[in-house]
Amino acid sequence: MTPLARDLARRIAAHGPLPLETVMAEAAAAYYADNQALGRGGDFITAPEISQMFGELIGLWVGVAWQATGGGPFHLVELGPGRGTLMADAWRALGKVGTATQQARVHLVETSPRLHQAQAAALAGLEATPTWHADLATLPGDAPLIVVANEFLDALPIRQAIRRPDGWHERRVGLDGERLTLVDGPLIDPATLRPAHRDAPSGAPSGVIAETCPAAQAVVADLARRLSAQGGAALIIDYGPATSAPGDSLQAVKRHAAVDPLDHLGEADLTAHVDFEALADTARAAGLTVDGPTPQGEWLQALGITTRAQMLARNATPRQRDHISSALQRLTDPAHMGHLFKVLTLTPA
């Protein structure tokens, strides 16, 4: 049992089961504070770590979004920038778009001091000195915002409800002996669920699970308010279905292998699928124009990733060409990241 799990077990024994949302939030805080999460030596690899092409194409997208704002000063924001790889690659590509890098001010929303160091190292020498923020609240409001969030929302804490014969119950984390386990909590108001969840046929079996992520909804609502007031655009890339649907998507990864979500709290990457339909509904309700969700493979192909791969391969060694080809397949093939990962763009109406 991890130190966090022992602390949670003591609290549960004293006061009863805890909301899953609370447990996930505490697990994420402990995990990103103490673990080298990203890369081949960590627990998982994100798209920017697979190939420079991913960040480069995002940089070109930023350039187009910047031009749409009129080409003046702007704030380039990344939510959850990991080791800074995406921003570094994007910045190099952005340098080819007019005076974009001269007009940009870089902001990184990151709470981990350890990752601050990695991000600073990745951006050193690129004339992209970042300002760090613990959350969105301190982002500036004096110029357009262009925001990139790659695999950020999937790590935010979720709520789960489980269908029983007497209605929907909140799922909480309780104890089975000394082991943490998910248990039924109090009844909840079905109105707090997505229609695709609460309108399930009355004959649906007991045990159907519905997930919501208030934290992700709050991020999109905040971005919508800022984009409406300041202009700019937001790019959200993450994994999950295009439409809301019941199901248990809570998962944990440790050393690139799936583990029980409650067995390594604070020492494994704990995530859940992003509900893109819910995010899009929130953005539209706030007056934004929404494009997508589009499968990542289609989006990258539309931006020219195959052409970029061919350009890189021209001067590459045979081993490098194999790596480029493998990365292209991994990022775009529906059997890999090409379909499960989706892209959502938000702009002022």
Automatic annotation (TrEMBL):
Signal peptide positions on this chain: none
GO molecular function annotations of the record: protein-arginine omega-N symmetric methyltransferase activity
Coiled-coil intervals: none
InterPro entries attached to this UniProt entry: NDUFAF7, NDUFAF7_sf, SAM-dependent_MTases_sf
Key words, A-Z: Methyltransferase, Transferase, Ubiquinone
Keyword DNA repair: no
One GO BP annotation of this record: methylation
Pfam families: Methyltransf_28
Protein name: NADH dehydrogenase [ubiquinone] 1 alpha subcomplex assembly factor 7
